Amino acid sequence: MTLLEIHEPGETPLPHAGEGSLAVGIDLGTTNSVVAIAREGKPAALHDEAGRALVPSVVAYPAAGGVLVGEEARILESQEPRNVVASIKRLMGRGAADLHAVAGVLPYEIAPGGGPTDMVKLLIGGKARSPVEISAEILKALRARAEAALEKPIERAVITVPAYFDDAARTATRDAARVAGLEVLRLVNEPTAAALAYGLDKGSEGLYAVYDLGGGTFDFSLLRLEKGVFQVLATGGDTALGGDDFDRAIAERMLAERRTDGLADQVDEAAVKAALALGRQIKEQLSDRDQASGRLEIAGVPSFHTLERAAFEAMIEAYVARTIDIARSVLADAGMSAGEIEGVVLVGGSTRVPQVRAAVAAMGGKPPLSDIDPDEVVALGAALQAEALTGGGDTLLLDVTPLSLGLETMGGIVEKIVPRNTPIPVQLAQEFTTYQDGQAAMAIHVVQGEREMVADCRSLARFELLGIPPMTAGAARIRVMFAVDADGLLTVSAEERTTGVAQRVEVKPSYGLSHDDMADMLYDSLDNAEADMTLRLLTEARVEARRNLLALEAALARDGELLSAEERGALDAGRARLEAALSGDDREAINAAAEALEMLSKPFAERRMDRGIRDALSGLSVSELETRVGE
Amino acid sequence: MDHFARLGLPAALDLELAQLDRAYFARQRLWHPDRFVGRPAEERARASIEAAALNDAYRTLKDPVDRAVYLATLKGVELPGDGKTIDDPDLLMEAMEAREALHEATTVDEVEVLAGRARKDVEAALGGLASLLLQDDKPAIRKTLLRLRYLDKFAEEARARRMNIQRPRP
């Protein structure tokens, strides 16, 4: 075996460390998404023209055609509810069988067809669309925002996922990035990213906790920070608990109040969406007020609703209490007590709810940390990690598996191979044997979860190890190896050790995408590829033209007297023509104007070069000349 | 390479956790896949295998019971595979009684008392193990390790029980 060269940490040579290969950090959230960039350890969220960092994770397929993402999509929500999707993250990697868990929150029509093991598809805008392609639209919008803000093509990103995301949801997220034309450098767990944003900023050491209550998910992670090492000790959470539940509680109450008032509502999608939207507004208002009210209109019939903060707090008490229970069990997992925590980092918009803050403070005995905007902190951390991965930073991130991984054994019992909170990457193997004499095949069923019975865990994949030579029961030695990579993705392989019959599978989650699905989606994105490419070329042309204009301006300021008034006039006119072209969207016009200006400025450039050489040579000794040339 | 050697540590029952952390972090700085982004595939694969081996070593040595079991295995003590039935009648009796008590516990405090007792038993058993290893008393080592493993499992069950007693999800 050849020996590998190892570079000093931080000195790893970069593959394409050139100007054009910036990598961004993306927080693909349930409610909002954010894209950020870090340069020299300083992260910043990228804003739109209106100065907003948050992109609502809402996608619209308007009747008029096209795709809208973000605020524009949200505006369409009340007019064309059937063409608008929100909170799609909740369905990432989910099958139809999982839907009842979230059906109350997501008033969408499920596309017919598709077996029980296929990823669910929604009927949106009259077409069946998978969560992967809907998420890809959000990622495309974020990518476009980054390219516009940075004036560079963006092809690589660190994307964050809830620590509690299972293998199927992680794979779905990676697939969505692929459809959006982004290479995922690393999937980083959201709480870890948040800690990264805090840790690097403050140089903190010790035990920290991240309490992340987003729109649809809750994560609690414990990390140890020490001299540039971020070590995740334990993590836990609930993939279906978040601020959306608070909105829903308020919405249900308002709908009930309408019923009490004798309003016979037809509670359709539009009604539910309107009630949820008002519920969210009231919740947000209650963060700094004791009472909030609003007007709900369903099918043209208005009603007015008022909610006291105390009543709201009673409604969500059980949800908040559950987050604290989960936090305590994560602490128990790590063998730590709440008193040992140096600080709790708050992440997610739902941590703005005062009751949530109070509960966290009561648990840790200290006021929680929240000086970085909880809506941006995850993206900022992801951006830092993106920079570290492309720029060879010295930070080391050691993460863990959030859920146990195991195999089905006789009687539907789960044998855990990789326990939860195992540091990744990891490769662990266990030997199994045959149950019957002459058994020639073994069914391998891979599951994820903490429960003892297969039926209570999530099924990830099934495959068969074939060709086991005839042996008496119990004689075969089947070694099953689980490998989890640094993204938290699993590969399982099996081998019969006495004969060497081997089989290896990349675990394709049962609820993942079939190859046909993926092909369809890539096809769809090809339909849009032309538009994407046009935008890319336009951006590049603009960047190039601006750079040339700036260089010419600087040269004119320094050596302008080399030109006659007439020449100067012509050159200024050429500059004006290019500026005019730049204000438009016609790449050809920009390129033509840029070329014309280059022709015009050629004599000037030549004269400057002559003068430069003369100046350099005049009055210098030979040795000085050599020094000068060597510079 | 055994786990101790991989981390450059002496093969011993007592291990200072700070020293283990230092050794582990220093090696992960060299081998973690994040250090190999954009490198050729075979280098990345090699780094991933090495980082995984380091994680396995770290995880095993960090836990006192796992470390004791591992060290005994290195010294030639044979243990039945994890999850196999207990063949020691005294231990069997102890385990049955403890599980029954856990099952009957209805408050978090009651569970805590049982878990606390198990923790003390673990410490006592680990304390006795050092001299047994010195004497190379294999049957006694084996007996102690099986009991430690059971106590570990019991701690896990106690945690699960406590979670069940606490509020279920709304």
Instruction: Provide the helix percentage of chain A.
Output: 25-40%
Instruction: Assign the CATH class of the largest domain in chain B.
Output: Mainly Alpha
CATH homologous superfamily (4th level) name of the largest domain in chain B: HscB, C-terminal domain
Dominant shape of chain A: globular
Structural class of chain B: mainly alpha
Oligomer: heterodimer
Tell me the total number of β-strands of chain A: 27
Description:
The complex is a heterodimer of chains A (631) and B (170). With 631 residues, chain A is α+β, with helices and mostly antiparallel strands. Chain A has three domains: 23-241 and 317-398, Nucleotidyltransferase, domain 5 (2-Layer Sandwich), CATH 3.30.420.40; 405-514, Substrate Binding Domain Of DNAk, Chain A, domain 1, CATH 2.60.34.10; 529-630, Substrate Binding Domain Of Dnak, Chain:A, Domain 2. Helices cover 38% and strands 24% of the residues of chain A. Chain A is built from 14 helices and 27 strands. In chain A, the strands form seven sheets. In chain A, strands 1, 2, 3, 4, 11 and 12 form a six-stranded mixed beta sheet that branches. A five-stranded mixed beta sheet of chain A has the order 18-13-14-15-19, sandwiched between helices. Chain A has a four-stranded antiparallel beta sheet with strand order 21-20-23-24, with no helix packed on it. In chain A, β16 (291-298) and β17 form a beta hairpin. In chain A, α5 (243-260) packs across α6 (269-285), α5 runs antiparallel to α7 and α12 (565-582) runs antiparallel to α13 (587-617). The longest helix of chain A is centred in the last third of the chain and has 31 residues, at 529-559. The two termini of chain A are 44 Å apart. In chain A, 44% of the residues are buried. Residues 1-20, 509-515 and 619-631 of chain A have low confidence and may be disordered. Chain B starts with a helix and ends in a 5-residue tail after the last helix. Chain B has helices at residues 3-6, 17-31, 41-62, 64-74, 89-104, 108-135, 138-165. Chain B has 170 residues and is mainly α. Helix content of chain B is 73%, strand content 0%. The mean pLDDT of chain B is 85. The longest helix of chain B is centred in the C-terminal third of the chain and has 28 residues, at 108-135. Chain B contains seven helices and no strands. Chain B folds into two domains: 3-62, Helix Hairpins (Orthogonal Bundle); 89-165, Monooxygenase.
